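Build the 3D complex.
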Amino acid sequence: MPDPVVVLIEDEPQIRRFLRATLTGQGYRLFEAPTGADGLVEVGSRQPDVVIVDLGLPDVDGIDVIRRLREWTAVPIIVLSARGQERDKVTALDAGADDYLSKPFGAGELLARIRVALRHAAGASHEGDESAFKVGELHVDLLRRQVALRSTEVRLTPTEYKLLTILIRHAGKVLTHQQLLREVWGPAHTDQAHYVRIYMAHLRHKLEAEPARPRYLLTEPGVGYRLAVD
Amino acid sequence: MSKDPPELASPPLTARSILLQTGYLTAVAAVGVATGISWLMFPFFELANLIMTYLLAIVVIAARYGRGPSVLASVASVAAFDFFFVPPYLTFAVADTQYPLTFAVMLIVGLVISGLTARIRMQAEAGEHREERTAALYAMSRELAQTGAVEDLVTIAARHIGEVFEAEVTASLANIDGQLQIPRREGGLPIEQDEVTLSRWALEHRQPAGLGTDRLASARTVHLPLLGHRGSLGVVSVRPRRRDIFKMPGSLRQLETFINQTALAVERARLADEAQEARVRAETERLRNSLLTSVSHDLRTPLATITGAATTILESGSRLDQRTQQELLESVRDEADRLNRLVQDLLEMTRLESGALQLRRDWHPLEEVVGAALGRLAKSLGTRRVTVSIPPDLPLVAIDDVLIEQVFLNLLDNAIKYTPPDSAIRIIVSATDRSVTAEVADYGPGLPKGQEARVFEKFYRAASDGRRGAGLGLAICRGVVLAHGGRISAHNLPEGGVAFLFTLPLTDPPPAPLPADA
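Done.
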């Protein structure tokens, strides 16, 4: 398998320098673009495996870059944004971004996000192959619809199970309340975010040893949820 | 205040005229009674004694009904005396020439008695009136003394003056530029333009104007300036329901006494306000200075470490052993983290203080918010024991989850900083019908005595505290909790350690119910 290609759309030279060192050191081929317009061109010509977009670009809004990209490509997009701008992150995610990183972030976090994105992109081509999911002591058999914790079966309601399968399909990626509501309850309920929170609480009480210190079902306040993968 | 004055003006006048009419009738009746008694006495007594009966009647009438009826009684007494008891009887003719003198003296005595008695009565009435107003003045002063806000002071004064002088009263305060702020009156009659002009004149010339004064005495309203040491503070406009109220001796002076009391109170309140403002300004200045000192120190320390470590590696990287290089890089990372937290705190505090903070409330289980905070702090919590107790039936709370997570983060971070690395932390959430209370407690040394409230002040750091932080974390907690309409407090625990408690109200209607889980 050839080295994965990453396009980085970021205007800050110092951030680009740090990411260049990190990514090339890890065997990625990196192409950089300092503006949104350049970035769109780069993505078109390089056919990358992952795109990293900073939300605060000088020429266009990062959200618009995501929308333009989503018109023609399903490439995984990871956005970079500052903490405290949860609203922008949700907008970016709902516009089609796959994940986000809050500045400042460490190299470890970044590489983990890219790995998850690549895995999902690879999985998308042969969807439905995954017949089981396993993290820590949680086992889900997707064929038999069985959930087990420390080898003990856990009974879930249909809604709880549906919620869990959607989290598993996107394991390691953040999912916004909107995305979960649309997939579980349908587009009519997208303004009832507390449905998701109540069912997440139910799931935690059934699947977590300490529901107030979750190990699998993680909350990202103001943004959404993430199912841990390690 | 807003009632129509003419309607109110009529009843007292009618009562007065009825009283006067009754007085005249009673005067005639009293003379009749005196004549009857004299008639019975007539066979046995000298005429001079009969005159005494009449004088008694005149005194009674004068004392009870005043001058008019008693004058009538005097004249009627002379006439009746002449008619019934002076020969020739049952005519007004007089046989003896000495009688006209008797009549004259009798009339004069009657009139003098009327005058004296009536005056004594008026003085008594005036005295009573003064007494009442002194009591009213005292009541007003006492209420004014208990009030702090200038607007409330003038409202109270207007009410008292209105009651005492049976008048409609409007108190208008002058603003800083000396412009009169005429209050809008609720549903009442508007103040006429010439009355406004008159009240402005009173303010500018520091003299009363309008009804009963030297200036435009024909007006319906009297305008009295509230005089302070540094100029006019405002104007009180008094429109009595009876125009003649200020004809009573001393009435206007008494009104001025009320006005002076009000002026004193308003000036006192203004001075107190100014003193308070000056204190706030001084405090703001002090905070700004302390912010600059604290921020520049707190920003420079990590920057110094980062610069030092980076330049060391750059300049002598090859000569350093692996372990030293690793240590230097770790300190760069840790100091950058610290710098990041500090900048975050400063931004958060600025957002809270500038009022730019907008709560994005939604329904959240607190357990999830606590879980997110504990997850974020997993590294710094290390192996510490954290016990969390949240009732399973805790209702959803309408909060901004990002901000409330920040509260938990700061409280936990505080506990981590001020307690030994292996000591436990506990989080307890409880609810009543109206509120949810969260407690974050540690088993550390506790707060210095008497500092339980001060810890929420900006830049407060426990004395002799070599630990890190800008002293903003708890101030941010307080800001966020207050923005949610809640309360926050800290207290030392009897078994050691400190508990931080915050309470959030459960006032909103509950969220839409869940669809059936089919």
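Chain A is about 40% helix and 25% strand.
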